[in-house]
Design goal:
9 strands, 2 domains, 9-stranded mixed β-sheet, about 270 residues, 11 helices
């Protein structure tokens, strides 16, 4: 069965227009083309980004742009795109990443063979400058059981690779704001609803990162957000109280007590291949 699918992406004023165009180009050069691309423009953007949007609106009839009056953040932008998408399956894409050319071919082939899967992701390569300059690979587990076990300690899916079943996301409450943890929070709620997960072993998206990306994964606000999510999981019996204490202690050490330079080394050494 040849199922149709949507791609949802958002862009805002802080994005780089050239990177944004490169990202959309990677969608249009897929070996299996999307049936629609829904772009949410999260508040006013500059002339260069508007030129890119205008070009694709005029040249592709399956490219739809939705403009929000003000910058509302990732959660609202993503949910707006999900709500607007026409098709049952929705692929998530970020506005400065590059999809591997056969990403959708591999994902839709898997979904058509395994229609019970509600969220299907894959691996990512992180690069600086050019995609060939890979500085890290984030490996996530493959099976539903492995993913749900991994979720008890860390986020088990690479959001920018994920293809979602729209009905499953809606049943879990949609994409809800949670500082830097919206995707993790969604996987937790989908787990509570008994949804089925899978990840492909392949690299599906090349993710653009900055030199300081690993060091930024810290600070008190970041820690409080993660600790709050761990508390939610404990209160909802996803993790035990000892696991909650352990998870929060590790995050306190890495995200608050550790200097930026050391935190960067820890992420590269233990959180990336």
């Amino acid at each position: 069965m040849n199922r149709k699918f949507s791609v949802c992406m958002s862009v805002y004023h802080g994005d780089n227009a050239a990177f944004f165009k490169q990202s959309i180009d990677s969608l249009l050069s897929q070996t299996r083309k999307p049936d629609e691309i829904v772009l949410v423009i999260d508040g006013p953007v500059g002339d260069e980004i508007n030129k890119v949007i205008s070009y694709f609106e005029k040249s592709r009839d399956y490219f739809r742009a939705i403009r929000l009056e003000k910058n509302s953040g990732h959660a609202i932008a993503r949910q707006t795109g999900l709500d607007a998408a026409k098709y049952e399956y929705i692929a998530i894409m970020d506005s400065d990443d590059i999809a591997v050319q056969d990403r959708f071919e591999k994902q839709m082939a898997y979904i058509e063979a395994h229609p019970e899967v509600d969220a299907l992701g894959g691996q990512i390569d992180e690069f600086i400058g050019e995609p060939s300059n890979v500085v890290g690979t984030r490996i996530v587990p493959l099976t539903d059981a492995e993913i749900k076990d991994y979720l008890k300690s860390r986020c088990p899916m690479n959001l920018v690779t994920v293809m979602l079943k729209k009905e499953a996301v809606q049943k879990a409450g949609g994409y809800i704001d949670w500082y830097c943890e919206e995707d993790y929070y969604l996987w937790v709620r989908m787990t509570e609803q008994g949804m089925t997960f899978a990840n492909l072993p392949d690299n599906l998206v090349n993710v653009r990162v900055g030199e300081e990306m690993y060091q930024r994964r810290g600070g008190m606000r970041y820690f409080k957000s993660e600790a709050k999510l761990q508390k939610y999981m404990c209160q909802h019996d996803i993790i035990s109280f000892p696991r909650y204490c352990y998870n929060v202690a590790i995050r306190l050490a890495v995200q608050v007590l550790m200097p930026n330079s050391v935190r960067g080394w820890v992420f590269k050494t233990f959180a990336r291949k």
